[in-house]
Amino acid sequence: MEHGHMEGMASPPSPPSSMMNGSNGMMHHKMMMHMTFFWGTNAEVLFSKWPGSSTGMYYVCLLFVFALAVIVEWLSHCRLIKAGSSDVVCGLAQTFLHTIRVGLAYMVMLAVMSFNIGVFLVAVAGHTVGFLLFGSRVFKKPDPEDEKGSDLPPMSC
């Protein structure tokens, strides 16, 4: 060690000027974007500064993500279009419902990309509960129009 400098050790780079607070040189505290899973209520999910540092709002956020995942599963397995509709009307309705389903699914994916373990768990739980309610045979009555009992594509005409 010569002149107070350790060999092989570089001094840390100075922070960018955009991080400095002009007059006194103090750094601004910005929320860090996590790139690994973390557990905690201080997260930013879907929107800037939401849910914030409030534990209650974090639970509202979890409920919102859970509901989005259940709705995605419902839209994936529902049959909202009645038989006998014209092909054009049926096709447009299918396209509209598909667009809504994909948009909501991407919102769930973006919420999971917050890397918050709680958000990840409620997204998986929402998809699980949604599939159990709408996709599995647990709560479905046999459909007399379905001759072989096979699953038809979602939203089929």
Automatic annotation (TrEMBL):
It is a multi-pass membrane protein. InterPro entries: Cop_transporter. Belongs to the copper transporter (Ctr) (TC 1.A.56) family. SLC31A subfamily. Keywords: Copper, Copper transport, Ion transport, Membrane, Transmembrane, Transmembrane helix, Transport. The keyword Cytoplasm does not apply. Pfam families: Ctr. The chain crosses the membrane at residues 57-76. This is Copper transport protein. It is found in: Membrane. The keyword Cell division does not apply. Its main location: membrane.
